[in-house]
């Protein structure tokens, strides 16, 4: 997956706030098949390969239910290694009658579902990048019905046992308060390229010619506030940077546009204009 390795900038992991850790563990571990790297009374770190953390779920003190019409997470998207993996996942979710949606985006095929707290998830597989179409430097994406029969045939009758070890976070999609402010932050500050724009309501951005590493929209409304600190949703996500030179350049760019970068335990933290927390993490060799 060359779109998710150096020299690209991509999402590494996310931390989600949930109301009930035990209930969420049943979903993430038992239903989706994540491995547990570490677990305490209030947090669990989840992995697909038993080494690399992808999702941390946390039940903070005084947790609040997911708040409507706020900025933050629309969905976090798990990219499976192969179409056959997605076929097995679809068969599994159908078998257990878990509510889901599905779409064909030309560049990928995707399943959509919510965790028990309403945190949005996309589980998808990319089509080969040679089949993607770019017009005027924008990727061609649509939302067509998924060919479920074809996808299920890819499963070859094999059962879903666990999340494939090659699973990564392919992208993250966010609710923001203002598209122009978000574009300034993500394009001028973080150095992403525009991959597609959908009027004044949504934008898809990437590095290295991917269809999108990050997307953001104002479908919850323009000027909406950030959620409360301890409400269900996205606590933070990390961006993986190829080296310290890139990190230093990004810190300078963020400073120029007036975004604050803080450092703690050798990690840099920033916040987008809509209040979403981001960890800037240099790739480990």
From TrEMBL:
GO terms for molecular function: lactoylglutathione lyase activity; metal ion binding. CDD domains: VOC_BsCatE_like_C, VOC_BsCatE_like_N. Keywords: Metal-binding. SUPFAM superfamilies: Glyoxalase/Bleomycin resistance protein/Dihydroxybiphenyl dioxygenase. This is VOC family protein. It comes from the Bacteria. Residues 10-126, 168-283 form the VOC domain. Pfam families: Glyoxalase.
